[in-house]
Design the sequence.
């Protein structure tokens, strides 16, 4: 108590000043870096507006060039999140509320380990193991469900389809979403949990009534962070996906749309002149897309927090 | 309780982190020691007359060969540093024209219609020197269970990659092959990244395919059908994984995959360094280019016995004059590349085909004409 009063009366101590300076600098650097990225992408991307078919791999203009890439990026990320979100929440709940404490902790460690695997390794695994093993599944889908546009085929013999890429992405975002979700679930006030149990709720009912509502806004952030990773993942997609630049909802054929990040990785090494500008323009679009997703997530979190308070 | 545990976990993980960091630093220090010892050794044992730094950039196909050439040249001349940035052929040409590098490696010759010949002339003050330095056969690899000695002609190959022939027992393929072919669906695999191999492969399909391949040659795959794969390693992985696949890769990377023979004249030829060199030697130089420009108009439709016209030709691009302090270095390095020994070294390191004698002499003479400005 007395030290607090003392601090106020004599102004800042050296430690405070250093701390203030450090945090301000860190904040400013982040803003400057972000601004730098935006300026670079915009300045270098604008010349691509007048790029012709020679610079755009045969596409007439930049919009025709970017559209299939945006489509592929969103499709792959969406599929990945459809798989990863329920899986992550399930794993996180198991680790925080259902499994015995030591086992829950081990599950947590193992999931965190997944985040430490480099994406190149995921790519190799996707090409060498997951893809070939999914071929029989895809073939079955092609035989029995080919009336659905998603499985119209012809089925890829290597399994390097957008569905495989999305499954690899799902496993890559799993640790991000799970780790955050677990932290949030753990923070549910124990009194509320115990109150629910005392009123005769089963374990699942307790989770539904006490844990999930408390965690809702945090879960949205977790999923959005995972979605950001899925949108931006480069190497694994570039390796696994057989990208041919078509726009299709067919998930099991050899012809697939590419994603923005994978397309940059694939074509930057041999690009020069305006085609580099076109790639940077696609980077700008990806940046804007990610920004929009993040903004939407913030809006969702904010509105759900408001409705919670009511 | 929970909070305590979290702190404990954090402490543990921090300890692990510190240990890892220490180990990493030690590792770097140890390997750094090793590296400096090595340099000292080579510097002590080899001495040479030249010194200075030379910067080149371009074709990534040449990278393995350039590495072999560089290390041999640097060992013979201890004061020399040669850098080669495998940034891609287009970037290499662009950098050379803008004056950013001393020489360029490129899988396609300077493009007259894009103003590159004029640009290089402006940079050098005179017509640039362009000589072939790296020739590599491209193999057509496939994975069709039960088929071991596939024979194809350019037209059939073009129709397969264009998606017109869709099953392996198609009459067009059966007409060229004895024995039973399976009814497996064909999945042609192409490079999804921009590549000199694709450029040369599509040129072959276009020139020799008798109209079955309508698109001009290009580094980017022109169609939206088939399966795309990233780089040569991705192509090999796709063919290994999928039954019914067919692809084109640098012959040195074909490994244990099945390799098809292609029809040249009346016979079927497997890819080989000798065959590629022969195809190059019977091809004329491109017309309408400066005298110092050895761009070869590869005759993909050649009927020369034993020739294998499906190959990649890569070039060295340099100026006819350099400043006095650089001229000997440039001349020495480029001459060592096109020399018989240099070509042999590349053949060993990268599986390329040594230049045929007539072209090698012509290239050596051109490089010998480089003067101080």
Sequence:
């Amino acid at each position: 108590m007395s030290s607090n009063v003392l601090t106020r009366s004599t102004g800042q101590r050296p430690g405070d000043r250093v701390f203030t300076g450090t945090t301000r600098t860190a904040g400013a650097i982040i803003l400057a870096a972000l601004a730098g990225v935006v300026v670079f992408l915009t300045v270098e991307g604008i010349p691509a507006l007048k790029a012709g078919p020679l610079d755009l791999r045969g596409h007439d203009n930049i919009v025709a060039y970017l559209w299939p890439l945006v489509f592929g990026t969103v499709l792959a990320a969406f599929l990945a999140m459809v798989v990863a979100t329920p899986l992550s929440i399930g794993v996180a709940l198991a680790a925080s509320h259902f499994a015995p404490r030591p086992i829950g902790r081990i599950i947590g460690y193992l999931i965190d380990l997944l985040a430490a695997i480099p994406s190149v390794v995921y790519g190799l695994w996707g090409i060498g193991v997951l893809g070939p093993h999914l071929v029989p599944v895809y073939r079955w889908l092609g035989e029995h469900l080919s009336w659905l546009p998603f499985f119209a085929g012809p089925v890829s013999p290597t399994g390097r389809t957008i569905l495989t890429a999305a499954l690899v992405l799902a496993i890559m975002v799993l640790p991000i979403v799970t780790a955050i979700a677990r932290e949030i679930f753990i923070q549910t006030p124990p009194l509320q949990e115990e109150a629910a149990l005392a009123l005769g709720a089963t374990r699942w009912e307790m989770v539904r009534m006490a844990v999930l509502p408390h965690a809702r806004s945090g879960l949205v952030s977790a999923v959005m962070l995972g979605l950001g990773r899925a949108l931006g993942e480069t190497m694994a997609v570039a390796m696994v996906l057989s990208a041919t630049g078509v726009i299709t909802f067919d998930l099991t054929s050899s012809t697939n749309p590419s994603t923005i990040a994978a397309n940059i990785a694939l074509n930057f090494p041999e690009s020069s002149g305006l085609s580099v500008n076109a790639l940077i323009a696609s980077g700008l679009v990806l940046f804007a897309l990610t920004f929009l997703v993040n903004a939407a997530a913030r809006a969702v979190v904010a509105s759900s927090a408001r409705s919670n308070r009511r | 309780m929970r909070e305590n545990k979290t702190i404990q976990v954090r402490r543990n993980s921090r300890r692990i982190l510190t240990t890892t960091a220490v180990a990493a630093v030690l590792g770097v220090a140890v390997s750094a020691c090793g590296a400096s010892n090595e340099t000292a050794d080579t510097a002590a044992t080899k001495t040479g007359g030249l010194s200075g730094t030379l910067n080149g950039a371009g074709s990534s196909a040449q990278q393995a060969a350039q590495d072999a050439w560089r290390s041999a040249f640097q060992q013979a001349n201890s004061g020399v540093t040669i850098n080669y940035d495998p940034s891609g052929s287009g970037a290499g040409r662009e950098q050379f024209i803008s004056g950013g590098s001393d020489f360029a490696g490129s899988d396609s010759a300077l493009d007259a219609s894009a103003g590159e010949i004029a640009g290089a002339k402006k940079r050098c003050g005179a017509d640039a020197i362009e000589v072939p330095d790296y020739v590599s056969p491209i193999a057509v690899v496939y994975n069709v269970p039960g088929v071991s000695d596939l024979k194809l002609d350019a037209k059939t190959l073009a129709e397969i990659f264009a998606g017109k022939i869709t099953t392996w027992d198609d009459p067009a393929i059966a007409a060229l092959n004895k024995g039973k072919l399976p009814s497996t669906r064909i999945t042609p695999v192409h490079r999804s990244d921009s590549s000199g191999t694709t450029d040369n492969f599509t040129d072959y399909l276009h020139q020799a395919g008798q109209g079955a391949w309508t698109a001009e040659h290009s580094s980017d795959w022109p169609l939206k059908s088939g399966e795309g794969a990233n780089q040569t390693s991705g192509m090999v992985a796709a063919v290994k994984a999928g039954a019914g696949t067919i692809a084109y890769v640098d012959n040195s990377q074909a490994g244990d995959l099945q390799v098809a023979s292609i029809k040249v004249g009346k016979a079927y030829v497997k890819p080989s360094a000798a065959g590629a060199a022969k195809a190059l030697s019977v091809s004329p130089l491109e017309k309408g280019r400066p005298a110092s420009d050895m761009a070869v108009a590869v005759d993909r439709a050649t009927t020369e016995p034993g020739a294998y016209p499906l190959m990649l030709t890569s070039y060295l691009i340099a100026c006819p004059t350099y400043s006095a302090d650089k001229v000997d270095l440039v001349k020495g390095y480029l001459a060592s590349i096109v020399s018989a020994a240099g070509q042999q070294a590349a053949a060993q390191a990268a599986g390329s085909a040594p230049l045929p004698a007539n072209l090698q002499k012509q290239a050596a003479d051109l490089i010998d004409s480089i003067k101080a400005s």
